[in-house]
Amino acid sequence: MATQGNKSGDPGSSIKNPEQYEALRDDGMSKEKAARISNSPTKKTSQKGGNHAPYEEWTYDELYDKAQEVDIDGRSDMTKSELIEALRNH
């Protein structure tokens, strides 16, 4: 069985919508998130998440707490911008 992100750059047969997957990856989305979206069973699935404010509007402490919740390594040494980038690419 093929896996996502093999060495040839082909996302593999486990991706149900490879064109959407590649477009999401080109936009900077993580492999895991792009795979989840492109494998979703409905056409109504949005690329955007929930209704929370953009990370840029969060305080450093809120971003740090979220990074801690999702177990991002090196978060204690990150700036606000780095936390935002790490959370978006998690």
TrEMBL record:
Residues 1-57 are annotated as: Disordered. Residues 22-35 have a biased composition (Basic and acidic residues). It comes from the Bacteria. Residues 37-49 have a biased composition (Polar residues). Residues 56-87 form the Rho termination factor-like N-terminal domain. InterPro entries: DUF7218 (IPR055642), Rho-like_N (IPR011112), Rho_N_sf (IPR036269). This is Rho termination factor N-terminal domain-containing protein. The lineage of its organism: Bacteria, Pseudomonadati, Pseudomonadota, Gammaproteobacteria, Oceanospirillales.
